Automatic annotation (TrEMBL):
Keywords: Membrane, Transmembrane, Transmembrane helix. The chain crosses the membrane at residues 28-47, 67-99. This is DUF4870 domain-containing protein. It comes from the Bacteria. It comes from Staphylococcus equorum. It is a multi-pass membrane protein. Its main location: membrane. It is found in: Membrane.
């Protein structure tokens, strides 16, 4: 009986609206990525992921986004030998910039957001 109660209680916590501190930390994951794309977001996620399901999900979304766009940039770099990469590379860089800003705003609003073209490596 207690196990069932704990299961229901934990699912209630997951569906709970994120606090303003959680939303701020989720936003900082994206905003600070402009200055350091890996280290600071990783530190925030590793420290806060156990405290908040929202920060855990936001961190996973960010790293899915980061890895995916790194892959797309590598593909565009290789495609430069075929000339099309000279068009793809700047487009991917611009999309990365735009979707980072959009994701920061969504995190600040407490929304779960995985930018387009992202591959889910972490679930």
């Amino acid at each position: 009986m207690d196990e069932q109660y704990n299961t229901n209680q934990s699912s209630t916590v997951i569906n709970q609206e994120p606090s303003s501190d959680d939303r701020l930390m989720g936003t900082l994951i994206y905003v600070l990525s402009f200055f350091t794309s890996l280290i600071v977001p990783l530190i925030i996620w590793l420290i806060k992921r156990e405290d908040s399901p929202f920060i855990d999900k936001t961190g996973k979304n960010y790293f899915n986004f980061l890895l995916s766009y790194m892959i797309w940039l590598i593909v565009a770099s290789i495609a430069m030998f075929i000339i099309i990469g000279f068009i793809l590379f700047p487009i991917i860089v611009i999309l990365n910039f735009i979707f980072t800003i959009v994701a920061a705003v969504k995190a600040y609003n407490g929304e779960d957001y995985l930018p387009p073209l992202s591959i889910r490596f972490f679930k």
